[in-house]
Amino acid sequence: MRLLLDTHVIVWALEDPDRLAAGTRTAIETEENEVFVSVVSPWELAIKGPREGLLLRDDLEAEADRRGFDLLPVHFRHTEPIGSMPYHHRDPFDRMLVAQAIIDGLTIVTSDSKMTEYQVALMPAT
């Protein structure tokens, strides 16, 4: 399975894994699964984290690497679906995660109910 962690799920996986559903936590921790962290997530944490109670860890990159999470860069191909996507979700960070998941065939791990309105594979975080 190829998983793309939503920004809040990265924080939970690193800081409070018991907040995740047991099956989701297992899927993230299973070595056979590829777990991706989009480069947009640290950007989102830096911009929105303090007001939403999600803090950007100083060692986020090192800890994600230690856990075996792969960094997913934004490529030109990821921007292609953005213009034609319906505005179910106005958050540009989440829209980019959806586009990345669609283009790269990833399952988004999230608790954001707005993402269910897109034609993208999802795994509930909680």
Keywords:
single chain, 126 residues, alpha/beta, Rossmann fold, 5-stranded parallel sheet, 6 helices, 5 strands, 15% strand, globular
| CATH topology heading | Rossmann fold
- Computed over alpha carbons, the radius of gyration is 14 Å
Q: Main sheet: which strands, in order across?
A: 3-2-1-4-5
What is the CATH class?
A: Alpha Beta
Q: What share of residues is helical?
A: 40-55%
The chain-level structural class is alpha/beta
**How would a textbook summarize the main sheet?**
5 strands, parallel
Name the average pLDDT. 91
Globally, the shape reads: globular
Find the CATH superfamily. 5'-nuclease
Low-confidence stretches: none
Write down how many β-strands occur, each being a DSSP E stretch of 2 or more residues.
5
CATH architecture: 3-Layer(aba) Sandwich
Question: What sequence of helices (H) and strands (E) makes up the elements?
Answer: EHHEHHEHHEE
Distance between the termini: 18 Å
Number of helices in the DSSP assignment: 6
Number of domains: 1
What amount of the residues lies in strands?
A: 15-25%
